[in-house]
Write a structure and sequence with these properties.
The complex is a heterodimer of chains A (269) and B (258). Chain A contains 7 helices and 10 strands. Chain A has 269 residues and is an alpha/beta fold. Chain A has 2 domains: 181 residues, Rossmann fold (3-Layer(aba) Sandwich), CATH 3.40.50; 68 residues, no CATH class. In chain A, strand 9 and strand 10 form a beta hairpin. Chain B has a single domain, classed as MetI-like fold (Orthogonal Bundle). The chains are: A alpha/beta (269), B mainly alpha (258).
Chain lengths: 269, 258
């Protein structure tokens, strides 16, 4: 896979929804951060801090109301157009009336790829997420973990320059989550794609990311930008690394303050 | 518990359903013979069967059946296409919805039989009239259920399709309509039922051929066996339509049952 050299730079990016009734809603106040090509950047923060909003702005589904979003080709050191992106969703968002194979081939079909070719590509992607043999099943027949692997295959088969992961394992149980985190770490390392991961889980952020952006409680700002220099490939064993627990503590301390503030704001005390 | 589950007739829905029909017919036959009721009021099932066979063999009942079927399904087909397209349009454009809400609210509760006199003035009593009355019967349930189905579509699916590069037209064809199919099909069931009622009613009023016309005529000349024979054909039509719908529903809904 050709690796993309496009970075995303956020400068003071904010999004305020105009008031429908009462006050306007500030979804994101002023985020400054960069997403480097070929790297995995995790965004972590309390509920409602605008993590997912930030992802939707990168994707182009929402427009920032302040600040600038730039795409920069690092190889040419010049502005670039918005690169190809695919999203993996917390709620999976698989099409229930399509089989696993048809779900994974959906994006290629929209692109007009001929049926034999798109099915061959889809089968390869399904194999990459260890779901061979389930091609003709419907999403309803699969477990949560399997469904999200279909979601992952559906995104990866598009060969995106940037993979967007919106709390991809948020709806899964703890054990399934562990296995999938390892699998995702492997797939992302292999593909060399740029990835942006929105998560609630410190563990997930450290296991998967090269860099962790910590956000404040609503309205969201970036409070820390932490490089993760733990060796790869990472796995569950990484959690035994002394560097891991130091990093976990640091992020947890930052987050705890922000979560406390979020709770105070929500209860109005 | 025995290893081989044994067949219990009274636990089989088919046996219960068909059995009740046979039982009623037998009781009817026996009661009619015993009481000697005048067949002008209540013919015996055996007499009705004879009338039915004769009407099919020599009386052109088959032509009446085909004519009625054609009228129902031609109008229904138009209603299906127009209803689904209009329903999708209404649910994807708030301006169209604002206009349509008004008209649907006014026309949907209106009993469609009340339109028969006006339609006859405009269209006469021939093919165009029958097609229109059948179409009018089916279109509102289909349209309303399409709107409901599209509205219930998970926004996450639309977002996922956009993310994979779908343009608005592809979103309609590949996400909104497929996800609305169970609801559209509920509308099809209701709509087809109304179409059947309206076409037969219209035939009774103005038809020269068709099951409704035949029924009305038989009643006028007190051919009670023939009245029952036509009713049986209509009932059989109802059963056939319901079973075919069940079958299609099962095929389309495989993913829901899997």
């Amino acid at each position: 896979m050709a690796e993309s050299s496009v970075a995303v730079e956020f400068q003071d990016v904010g999004l305020t929804f105009p008031a429908v009734a009462g006050e306007p809603v500030v979804a994101l106040s002023a985020a400054t951060c960069t997403f480097e090509p070929g790297k995995v950047t995790a965004i972590i923060g309390p509920s409602g801090c605008g993590k997912s909003t930030l992802l939707q702005i990168v994707r182009g589904f929402l427009d920032a109301t302040r600040g600038t979003v730039m795409f920069i080709d690092r190889a040419a050191d010049a502005p670039a157009s918005r690169p190809a992106m695919s999203t993996v969703w917390q709620a999976f968002n698989l099409f229930p009336w399509l089989t696993v194979l048809e779900n994974v081939a959906f994006g290629l079909e929209l692109r007009g790829v001929a049926k034999p070719e798109r099915e061959a590509l889809a089968r390869k992607a399904i194999q990459a997420v260890d779901l061979s043999g389930f091609e003709s099943k419907y999403p309803r027949q699969l477990s949560g973990g399997m469904r999200q692997r279909v979601g992952l295959a559906r995104a990866l088969v598009m060969k995106p320059d940037i993979l967007l992961l919106d709390e991809p394992f948020g709806a899964l149980d703890a054990q399934t989550r562990l296995v999938l985190q390892e699998q995702l770490a492997r797939l992302v390392e292999q593909s060399g794609t740029t990835a942006i991961l929105v998560t609630h889980s410190i563990e997930e952020a450290i296991l998967l990311a090269d860099k962790i952006v910590v956000m404040s409680a609503r309205p969201g700002r970036v409070v820390a930008d932490i490089a993760v220099d733990l060796p790869r490939p990472r796995s569950f064993a990484t959690t035994q690394d002394p560097g891991y627990s130091k990093m976990f503590d640091r992020i947890y301390t930052l987050l705890r303050d922000e979560v406390m503030r979020a709770i105070v704001v929500e209860t109005g005390n | 518990m025995s290893a081989q589950p044994q067949w219990k007739p009274l636990d089989d829905p088919h046996v219960l359903g068909w059995g009740s029909v046979v039982l009623v017919l037998v009781l009817w036959e026996v009661a009619a013979r015993l009481t000697g009721v005048n067949s002008l009021y209540l013919p015996r099932p055996s007499q009705i069967v004879v009338a039915l066979v004769t009407m099919f063999a020599t009386g052109g009942l088959f032509v009446d059946l085909l004519t009625t079927l054609y009228r129902i399904f031609a109008g229904f087909a138009i209603a299906l296409v127009v209803g689904v397209l209009l329903g999708v349009w209404i649910s994807t454009s708030w301006r169209v919805r604002a206009v349509a809400d008004m008209w649907v609210a006014a026309l949907y509760p209106l009993p469609k039989v009340t339109l028969i006199p006006l339609l006859i003035i405009w269209l006469g009593t021939g093919g165009p009239f029958m097609l229109t009355i059948s179409m009018l019967g089916a279109i509102f349930p289909i349209l309303i259920n399409t709107v409901l189905g599209v509205r219930q579509c998970d926004p996450g699916l639309v977002l996922a399709a956009r993310d994979l590069g779908a343009n608005p037209q592809q979103i309609v064809r590949k996400v909104l309509i497929p996800s609305a199919i169970p609801s559209i099909f509920a509308g099809v069931r209701l709509g087809l039922g109304v179409s059947i009622i309206l076409v037969v009613a219209a035939e009774m009023v103005v038809g020269k051929v068709g099951l409704g016309a035949r029924l009305y005529l038989a009643g006028q000349i007190l051919e009670t066996e023939q009245v029952f024979a036509v009713l049986i054909v209509l009932a059989a039509l109802g059963i056939a339509v319901t079973k075919i719908q069940d079958f299609i529903d099962l095929k389309l809904g495989r993913w829901r049952l899997a």
